[in-house]
Each structure stands twice: as structure tokens, then as C-alpha cells.
């Protein structure tokens, strides 16, 4: 593999997510029309900085078509979440990244839990294909790690983030439901990664509180909330999105 220049990735990520705080609605809704309405009703909300596009919006029509249609509605960045990309053979990374890049994705959420080489391959190929890797490895469910009855080691996220940072990633997705663990990871990022960008998930029914999470992540230079049902299922996605943005702003000012 050719050497990667971490500065290129940092500059691209900062350009893509220029605002220091913002909301990323997750487009994990039940129908195509519902997804388009959600974007239409939130794309002009000040503080909405992008969208997370997942399988429910892609499987019926394909990634290129989904992105093409969304580009007619919004100019905001589109983060594709393959739910989850990365736990695969390392040689699949180049093929996956090429397809997503050609489809027009701006960034990819990666959960490369298949091992160190998977981290290096999926993060590296995402960067080589001109997209921003948003790297994670933990979802906010009780039985994910061994200590809760799951299958993965308890420090799986720390192991992945360290390797991803060495490859050149500066954007990470973290669960928001454990604020002590969140502070620890933010501390590591601010000391080891240039201009770290943090995406927080798991709000509402998954246990995360927007105000507490953003207060815990206050040290991160750029921090964003990925929010699904709390915005998408509300009677007014516009108003719900604005409430989340206002809560985030207030939390970092306290």
C-alpha cells in the first residue's frame, strides 16, 4: 500500500464538517418517501450538518440512485453506514471503498472488528478513494462486549481507534450512553489525534442523553450527534432537529 498523508484526511474531514457542533439525522426510516420528507424538512435547519444514509434507504434502489436523489434535495454531506462495514476480509476494503466513492458518498462509517488488518485496509482504502472514514467499534447495547455477555473484548473500541488513528483517521463514532467512558476516549483523542471529530450515537431509548453527552465531549474540537427516531418519528422533524441543536449548544456553553 502507498503511504497515506494524514494531513490530507484531516483537511478533508474539516472541510466536510466545518461547523464545530451539529446534528446528523439518521435516515433509517421505513419508506423511501419518508426518507425524502425527512431530508426536505431538516436540510435547512441551522445546525444540521449532514445525513447518515443506511441500508433501509439503499437496499430497495441501490446506493448510487439513493445518493443521486438525495443530492437533488440537499447539499449537505452524506455519510454511508453499511451497518456495519469493516468486519470482513481485508481484501474487500478496496472494492467496497471504490463502489461507495463512485456512488458519491462523502464519508463511510466503519466498524472494522475483524482485526488489525481489517482496520488498516478499510480505513486506508476509504481515505485513498477520497472519502472520510468515521471509525467505531462499539454499539450501545448491553450484551455487546464480554463483560455484558457478548462476544467482543471490552476494549475493542480502544484497540480499533488506536490503529485507525495511526492510519490517518481523525473522525470517530462513539456511544453516548456511558459518559465516563466517553470522556476517557475524548481525552485519548485530543492527545493523540490531530483535530479529532466525534460523532455520538445512542440517544433516547438506547440510554444517551444529548446534554450530558455533549458536556462529556466538550473537549473535542468538533462534535456531532447522529439521531434517528427522535427526529424521524416526531410529528415535526424540523422542530425536533432544532431542539437537539439547541440542547447541544447549551450543553457546551454550560
Describe this structure in words.
- It is a single chain.
- An 8-stranded parallel sheet has the order 1-8-7-6-5-4-3-2.
- The chain is α/β, with parallel strands linked by helices and 254 residues long.
- It has helices spanning 6-16, 32-42, 55-58, 63-71, 93-103, 116-128, 156-167, 179-192, 210-216, 229-232, 237-253, and strands at residues 21-25, 51-53, 78-85, 107-110, 132-135, 171-175, 197-201, 222-227.
- Helix content is 44%, strand content 16%.
- It is built from 11 helices and 8 strands.
- It has a single domain (6-253), classed as TIM Barrel, CATH 3.20.20.70.
- α8 links the parallel β6 (171-175) and β7 (197-201).
- The N and C termini lie far apart (46 Å).
- α5 packs parallel to α6, α6 (116-128) packs across α7 (156-167) and α9 packs parallel to α11 (237-253).
- The protein is globular.
- The mean pLDDT is 90.
Quick description:
The chain has 254 residues and is α/β, with parallel strands linked by helices.
